[in-house]
Amino acid sequence: MNKNIAVINGDGIGPEVTKQSVKILDAVAARYGHTFQYTYCLMGADAIDKTGSPLPDETIEVCLSSDAILFGAIGHPKYDNDPTAKVRPEQGLLKLRKSLQLFANIRPVSTYSTLHHLSPLKSKNLEGVDMVIFRELTGGIYFGKKQLSEDGNTALDECTYTRAEIERVSRLAFAYAQGRRKHLTLVDKANVLETSRLWRKVVQDLSPEYPDVKVDFMFVDNASMQLMLNPKQFDVVLTENMFGDILSDEASIISGSLGMLPSASVGTGSALFEPIHGSYPQAAGKDIANPTGSILSAAMLLDHLGMAEEASQVRAGVEWTLAHGFVTKDIDPVNYYSTSTIGDLIRDYVEQKLPAGVD
Ligand code: IPM
Ligand code: MN
């Protein structure tokens, strides 16, 4: 197959982790006879430095005409503590999500037995954890009206959801649950928020169309506790934009390293794939960051392109490195390998050229 892939390196460690994924996608293309055409484009602090805008129009055009987008990370500390900054790197990502109608963010949370010791949770609570968070990504408080009064003393962020917005992401989550353990948990704050009550209503209305899926409802404060107490109970978690932002970061520490987890943002057209970690500026350029989150995002990208076998080869490569102790500094601060070495090893695995002396 011929596919156009937009590549956005972004900020901090974005370029170096994305480079590993491209290397592995090239190996996939060679082994399975595909052609991947990459177009590099700008977003985030990098784009502000080079063009003045966090999301140049050209990036939107390239992404709109691509089959998939591979993205690294966004953010730079110089913007974080400046509440008056008018232009922020994150605006680029938010605008891209909206422009491409990427209304569902999918974050699988899995655990690896070799990493149990890194998790703040006890091993017995980690066995069998396998959940996927579906976060609504283009609505809610993130995209509502924002205002600061003239005297600068009153601020407003509005949260709005329409039935249509809730329905489209809920349908994806229901369908996804049907292919898994058939359990959907809607996380909301329906005891307080009108938008949450609409979410509950819409999910209840859709439920008869998916009779094999068991639906539960959970308040977000309780859900944040349950995620730590008994993460095994979750299969597919569906939630609105801001709750999903918070809960997916919370859930990410279950696996032991934020550096391991991938995500997909899907919508009506092209889809975007990115590790869930941030730009980690302290590690930028040092070749120490964990590229696994990006590489597993590339696997999700392959799945999205209908290349399931290719995706499972990449995942097997990741598992192979973990099983053989080929890990980055975040996983083993003493015996660790560089970002690019991990990328090379997974590439070799995909190319079926395992290093000599290691089976
Ligand atoms: C994420 C990030 C973004 C978000 C930021 C960078 C705007 O935290 O993808 O979860 O809040 O959605
Ligand atoms: Mn976030």
UniProtKB/TrEMBL annotation:
Query: Which superkingdom?
Result: Bacteria
Instruction: Kindly list the positions annotated as binding substrate.
Output: R97, R107, R135, D221
Residues the record lists as binding Mg(2+): D221, D245, D249
- Which Pfam family would be a valid example here? Iso_dh
Write out the function statement from the record.
Catalyzes the oxidation of 3-carboxy-2-hydroxy-4-methylpentanoate (3-isopropylmalate) to 3-carboxy-4-methyl-2-oxopentanoate. The product decarboxylates to 4-methyl-2 oxopentanoate.
Q: Where is this site: Important for catalysis?
A: Y142, K189
User: Lineage of this protein's species?
Assistant: Bacteria, Pseudomonadati, Bacteroidota, Chitinophagia, Chitinophagales
| SMART domains assigned | Iso_dh
UniProt keyword Cytoplasm present: yes
Does the keyword Chaperone feature in the UniProt annotation?
no
Catalytic activity, as annotated: (2R,3S)-3-isopropylmalate + NAD(+) = 4-methyl-2-oxopentanoate + CO2 + NADH
Give the cofactors, semicolon-separated: Mg(2+); Mn(2+)
* Keywords in alphabetical order: Amino-acid biosynthesis, Branched-chain amino acid biosynthesis, Cytoplasm, Leucine biosynthesis, Magnesium, Manganese, Metal-binding, NAD, Oxidoreductase
Question: Which InterPro entries does the record associate with it?
Answer: IsoCit/isopropylmalate_DH_CS, IsoPropMal-DH-like_dom, Isopropylmalate_DH
Q: Which GO terms describe its molecular function?
A: 3-isopropylmalate dehydrogenase activity; magnesium ion binding; NAD binding
Q: Please give the name of this protein.
A: 3-isopropylmalate dehydrogenase
Pathway listed: Amino-acid biosynthesis; L-leucine biosynthesis; L-leucine from 3-methyl-2-oxobutanoate: step 3/4
Assigned protein family: Belongs to the isocitrate and isopropylmalate dehydrogenases family. LeuB type 1 subfamily.
A GO cellular component annotation here is: cytosol
**BP terms from Gene Ontology:** L-leucine biosynthetic process
Q: Isopropylmalate dehydrogenase-like domain spans which residues? A: 4-346
